[in-house]
Design a protein that fits this description.
The protein is an alpha/beta fold and 1001 residues long. The mean pLDDT is 91. The strands form eleven sheets. The chain has a six-stranded parallel sheet, with helices on both faces.
């Protein structure tokens, strides 16, 4: 029975989740389990394992998913408890280390380390190419540990790097040493004068560790990836590195190692190396060269290449290593025994396959089977690091499970005479792989002996005496258990081959005159020279352990705690990259222009009048304005429809509810979004011709905006109530409150809003759920003038009493202010700043500067928060209102930290949660508003400029403080909380803007 748990927005790197999967697999009763991020590639792996579920398929790339095959439902609790404990332990271990400084975006990483020159990328391959492209644009070289990058992307990246004077090492580059700093799965190797350019992983490790144990060193070992010498790639990184190594005075001898290149690439490399000015050793694993050339040596094995290089540095021949083993007990050829070889990486496995084929005198390559380097007459060589074995599972360098399984199968095969394996030491490898394998080796040796058979276990330990696992300790453990341990892989292979009664011949090579070809030499860029001559400054994108290691070696490093941008949607990532690199317009500069208008705005309350006096559209028949983007009456939620009933009764277009509803359903009434006529409205937003509205003018640009007045709390129109009490209050506001305030405002010559906001934010308002200070500040402005107006004393008292009692009165002024400010800002009509957010109970809509009046919508969410006694989430109406204009301008939920008194009311929990919320909002905004300072936020300005690109990239949507209406009209407000827009609004907006600028998918 499959059980699924989806942990939304919980991102962990693949290595950590692989180790966790292994841990959970050991729980009794768990038949099968997989724990991975729900990326498209991982979903395929789940499917292949028979672990795909509906919940999994609905999850996003930023969600961690646990799928377990269990019979006991209670076991799921145990699994999740152990999962949480595992992460707690991981966190504790991380906390014990100083560690590199962590950030969550490229922008923050570059702020911390602006002169970074190397990006180390170890994230899922579907995204690695996109992040590598970003790194190149930032002027950084790239070390791409990630695999599963398409050949097409590799070609594009390497061509781009070459044009920029940079290098892309990889993809699938497991090993590198740069200025003696180990990168990824690498050993602690002494610095020295030998330079290496190699395909990707274990080959470089074998070379560097042999060189180290021989007493020489390597300062730079550059991995180029397994496909660089493919015809499509053309050896771009290899050729650039050959030029750079020749230019590097610290390098005395160069080794080049890889699988055999494509013929045209080989010819190009051979021609270039023929006029190389330093001694060079080449090794194309699988080929058996018959001669050397002067200063141009051709090795057969990794050991030969290493010894040649050391000999060239010293000017003397380095003797061969020998195996200290009693061969008298070995099998003879006629016993027909076989070798089973299980390796951690491709190059060592490839070398083993080559030597075994040589010993068997096989000329024709055997059948190519995924994961197998060799399958011949019962002899097998398996690369357990191949994708066939590591998809969704830990690499054999860090987990012994697959190798243990393979060795058990090998001993069960009666033909097996030798089991051959490598033990990889170094950074990234298991802390004691020898110790982890020994119990199984002892058990299997005993099993074979009990069956009257001999199985020779033969190993090579790839490491140095500085590796933290301890080279001598690993060798000693293995030998104590009866394992034959050889100095290098060639010797281990030869010993295994002799153990079954065979051998291969490695003849002495003559040295011929080198044929020099007139091939062009490239001039390495200053950036490549710097890469090989200075300690790298690194932005580590992915596996944190890589950052921890380079920091130990004195590197400046910033840890980028990467999560899939745009929810892992590759198409949207391409859109983001297009907008980032767009040549026709500096979008960042356009966005700064938009927010400069916001900062420069001078909103002033200039009047209070009937809506029809300032909104011409209300004079063209029966017209009602509503909140949000356009919506048909039948799609309005019940409270909004109830507000429409109230408006019809208020306007006396009908004198009872039944007739009002008939009129509304008849199509005679024309509905217009408030936003389309320079207005905004709270909750339902219903505004009719004779309702009183504030007029706010932005003096900087001369534009106006309008909003109805706040009715107070309880049964009010904005929450869907339409009783006689509600309608009577609206008429009083139209006839008494509005005109009184209009007279006072005009007598005052207008009231500047910015000073009121600045004062109130320092007194604990955030201007969406808390407006007490601002409402009182407004009353303080108008009250003296109201006392002088000629009017009925009771009316005067009622007006002042209403203003005194209505704590939220300023909200509607803030809304009109936000509309006036953002309407002026969006005249820029360039960039990706959000200029409006609103909702109609059916859809949420946003506008961005570069798309003018166009709405981008998605299904509206229901607020989450605290409820009045007797109500809960089942009673809540989907979100409504234009009041999110406050968040658009940077207050409301965006300034949660300013209003500690209200944080619990809106469900934020308390000060720390409010601080976290406001800090998170800085991730999606581009600046701070210097006009509105928040004292308890270290006197920083409010967040300013929601960038739709950042929202999509980071998956962080703006938080909106809001009231919660009952889903049935007439009940009114039942609570308050927060709500988030659907991210698809922002995704649609940036995609449309990119298409406007010429993007094609």
């Amino acid at each position: 029975m499959l059980k699924t748990v989806v942990k939304k927005g919980s991102y962990h790197d693949s290595v950590v989740l692989m180790l966790l999967t292994n841990k959970i697999s050991a729980i009794e009763g768990v038949k099968k389990v997989s724990i991975m991020m729900a990326t498209p590639a991982n979903k395929d792996i789940f499917k292949q394992s028979g672990l795909d579920t509906e919940e999994l398929m609905a999850a996003s790339a930023n969600d961690m998913v646990v799928v377990a095959d269990i019979d006991d439902d209670a076991l799921l609790d145990t699994i999740m408890e152990q999962t949480e404990e595992f992460f707690r332990q991981q966190s504790a271990k991380s906390g014990e280390k100083k560690g590199a400084e962590s950030v969550k975006s490229w922008d923050k990483a570059l702020q911390k380390l602006p002169d970074a020159n190397l990006a180390v990328i170890s994230i899922p391959g579907a995204y690695a190419a996109l992040e590598a492209d970003r790194a190149l644009d930032e002027g950084m070289n790239v070390f791409m540990f990630s695999d599963n990058v398409t050949l097409e992307d590799e070609v594009k990246l390497k061509q781009k790097a070459h044009e920029k004077g940079l290098a892309v090492m990889g993809p699938d580059c497991g090993t590198g040493i740069i200025q003696s700093v180990p990168i990824a799965f690498t050993n602690n190797v002494a610095p020295g004068s030998i330079g290496i350019i190699g395909a990707s992983g274990t080959g470089i490790q074998e070379l560097t560790t042999i060189i180290d144990r021989l007493g020489e060193g390597v300062t730079n070992a550059i991995g180029i990836g397994g496909r660089d010498l493919n015809a499509a790639v053309g050896g771009i990184t290899m050729m650039d590195m050959i030029d750079a190594m020749e230019d590097d005075d610290a390098v005395k001898v160069v080794i080049i190692v890889s699988k055999p290149p494509a013929k045209e690439v080989r010819d190009k490399i051979a021609a270039r190396l023929s006029n190389f000015s330093k001694p060079i050793v080449t090794l194309f694993v699988g080929e058996k060269p018959e001669y050397h050339e002067e200063n141009f040596y051709h090795a057969y094995t990794l050991d030969e290449a290493a010894r040649l290089a050391v000999g060239l540095v010293r000017g003397e021949k380095v003797p061969e290593a020998v195996a200290d083993v009693d061969e008298s007990t070995f099998y003879k050829a006629e016993d027909h025994k076989t070798i089973k070889a299980y390796y951690s990486g491709g190059t060592l496995a490839n070398e083993a396959a080559m030597l075994i084929k040589d010993a068997m005198d096989v000329k024709v390559p055997p059948e190519d089977i995924e994961g197998y380097m060799l399958q011949l007459d019962g002899n097998i060589v398996v690369d357990l690091g191949d994708d066939a074995y590591t998809q969704g599972k830990p690499h054999p360098m860090i987990d012994p499970a697959k190798r243990i399984e393979c060795m058990q199968e090998a001993v069960d095969d009666e033909t097996t005479g030798a089991v051959l394996l490598d033990i990889m030491l170094g950074y990234g490898s298991h802390e004691d792989m020898a110790g982890a394998l020994l119990p199984t080796i002892r058990e299997l040796k005993a099993k074979a002996e009990n069956a009257g058979r001999k199985v020779f276990f033969i190993a090579t330990v790839c490491g140095t005496r500085r590796d933290y696992q301890g080279y001598d300790e690993a060798v000693h453990k293995l030998r104590e258990a009866g394992v034959i341990v050889c100095e290098n892989n060639k010797l281990a292979c030869r010993t295994a081959i002799r153990a079954i009664g065979r051998d291969f011949v490695e003849p002495e090579k003559e040295v011929r005159v080198k044929e020099v070809v007139d091939a062009p030499k490239g001039v390495p860029s200053e950036k490549l020279r710097a890469l090989l001559s200075e300690k790298p400054k690194i932005i580590n994108v992915g596996l944190k352990s890589f950052a921890e290691v380079v920091e130990q070696f004195g590197c400046e490093v910033v840890q980028y705690d990467w999560m899939p941008p745009a929810g892992g949607n590759v198409e949207l990532i391409k859109v983001l990259n297009f907008l980032r690199h767009y040549d026709g317009l500096d979008i960042d500069e356009a966005n700064r222009e938009v927010i400069a208008k916001v900062v420069a705005s001078q909103p002033v309350i200039i009047d209070n009048v009937r809506a029809k006096e300032v909104i011409p559209e209300l004079n063209t028949g029966k017209v009602i304005l509503h909140a949000g983007p356009p919506v048909a009456y039948e799609n309005m939620p019940d409270p909004m429809q109830g507000s429409c009933v109230g408006a019809v009764l208020f306007e006396e277009w009908a004198d009872n509810e039944a007739d009002a509803r008939k009129l509304l359903e008849s199509g005679e009434i024309h509905f217009i979004p408030c936003h389309h006529v320079k207005a905004v409205g709270p909750m339902g937003g219903i505004t009719s011709p004779n309702m009183a509205v504030f007029v706010v003018k932005n003096m900087t640009d001369g534009n106006e905006a309008y909003c109805t007045m706040n009715e107070g709390i309880g049964k009010v129109l904005r929450f869907g109530a339409y009783s006689e009490e509600v309608v009577d209050r609206l008429r009083w506001m139209r006839d008494i409150l509005g005109p009184t305030l209009g007279k006072a405002i005009r007598k005052l010559g207008g009231i500047a809003v910015n000073p009121l906001i600045a004062k109130a934010i320092a007194m604990g308002d955030e201007f969406h759920q808390r407006n007490i200070a601002a409402s009182l500040a407004f009353l303080k402005e108008v009250a003296p003038t109201i006392t002088k107006i000629e009017m009925d004393e009771k009316d005067r008292y009622d007006v002042i009493k209403f203003l005194s009692d209505t704590d939220q009165f300023f909200l509607n002024i803030m809304m009109a202010t936000g509309k006036a400010v953002m309407d002026a800002a969006r005249t820029i009509e360039r960039g990706t700043i959000v200029t409006a957010m609103c909702r109609n109970g059916y859809e949420f809509g946003i506008r961005i500067a570069g798309m003018g009046d166009q709405w981008f919508t998605g299904p509206v969410n229901t607020p989450q928060g605290l409820y009045f006694t007797g109500y809960d989430g089942e009673d809540a109406c989907p979100d409504m209102g234009d009041s999110a204009i406050t968040e658009t301008v940077g207050v409301g939920g965006m300034a949660m930290i300013a209003a500690p008194a209200v944080t619990r009311f809106v469900g934020a929990g308390g000060y720390e949660d409010a601080l976290r919320t406001s800090t998170e909002m800085t991730e999606i905004t581009i600046d701070r508003n210097p006009n509105f300072i928040i004292p308890n936020w270290n006197f920083q300005g409010t967040c300013l400029g929601i960038d739709a690109r950042l929202v999509v990239e980071k998956g962080i949507t703006p938080v909106i403080n809001t009231g919660i209406a009952h889903k049935i009209a007439g009940y009114g407000q039942i609570g308050a909380g927060t709500v988030h827009p659907p991210i698809e609004c922002f995704e649609k907006a940036i995609k449309a803007y990119a298409e406007k600028l010429g993007f094609t998918s």
